[in-house]
Amino acid sequence: MSQPFIGEIRMFGGNFAPVDWAFCNGQTMQISGNEALFTLIGTTYGGDGVSTFLLPNLQSRVPVGMGTGAGLPPIQIGQVAGNENITVSIVQIPNHNHLFTVNTAAGGSASPNGALLCGGTKMFKAAATNGNLAPTAVQSSGGSVPHNNIQPYQVVNYIIALYGVFPTRN
Fold first, then answer.
1. What is the pLDDT of residues 137-154, one digit of tens each?
2. Which domains does the chain show, CATH number per domain?
3. Interior angle at CA 77, CA 45 and CA 29, nearest 5
4. pLDDT tens for residues 85-144?
5. What SS3 class is residue 102?
6. Three-class SS of residue 92?
7. CA atoms of 38 and 40, how far apart (whole Å)
8. In a designed cystine with 24, which of 44, 58, 105, 153 is the match (CB 3.0 to 4.6 A)?
């Protein structure tokens, strides 16, 4: 196998990082002894830039390419976003109502089949609608509990090359 580029990230099915590679787990690296890798990634993923820098952390993360997708804001290298759990708020759900259509005339049937709710002792009528129940007649629901927002997954390790060929720009 040819030598990797320094800073190259690969998926690896093993439970260890091979020689000259490290897990992409956000670990702190010393600049001293890792100058080439620091030259390439700097403090993009963190660190003080004086004596330390951080490797990318792809634990529980999906890598995304830098740039701008159609209708999306630009994303920068090193940016972290997203949530594993989310609570949907009222402003995020589609606009809709809970109006319950009724007929305001007296009912003519005791059966609800094909009929609308009406007033009186016979509470259903097949005639045209002309009213709604009061908005307070329909109760709120929901518990505002966060739900899991993780897509189906299969776990592999991401590793980054610490040594190898220093990439050149074309």
1. 667 777 788 888 888 889
2. 7-61+156-170 (3.90.1340.10), 99-134 (no CATH)
3. 20
4. 888 888 888 887 776 666 666 666 766 676 666 666 565 556 555 666 666 666 777 778
5. strand
6. helix
7. 5
8. 58
